[in-house]
Design brief:
Layout (H helix, E strand, L loop, with lengths): L1 H26 L4 H70 L1
Helix pairs in contact: 1-2
Length: 102
């Protein structure tokens, strides 16, 4: 929950920064062409930043997925070994009981 709030706060801060930068460009004492160029450059920077963050997130998700798969595989092997040991113990006990009854 804390992670979600922190992410939302960071996102709100970044959006506010982008909006503030856009307003500052609109009120800057530059010509329309210069202002449009600055806005275009800013949009390009924002696009690059977004792409970088997306790539970082994608790699993080991929790494985490691989780790989870590895843990699940290890636990699955442990569980299978425990079930096999339980079956073996059951069969030994069953055989012992059958011998005692006979």
């Amino acid at each position: 929950m804390e992670r979600t709030r922190r992410g939302g706060t960071v996102l709100a801060f970044l959006i506010g920064g982008v909006v503030g930068a856009g307003i500052a460009l609109l009120y800057a004492p530059n010509s329309g062409a210069q202002t449009r160029k600055k806005m275009k450059d800013g949009l390009g920077d924002a696009t690059d930043w977004t792409r970088d963050k997306y790539d970082d997130a994608r790699h993080t998700v991929a790494d985490t997925t691989d780790k989870v798969r590895q843990i699940v595989d290890e636990k699955k092997e442990d569980l299978k070994a425990a079930v096999d040991a339980g079956k073996e113990a059951f069969l030994r006990g069953k055989e012992r009981l059958l011998r005692e009854i006979s």
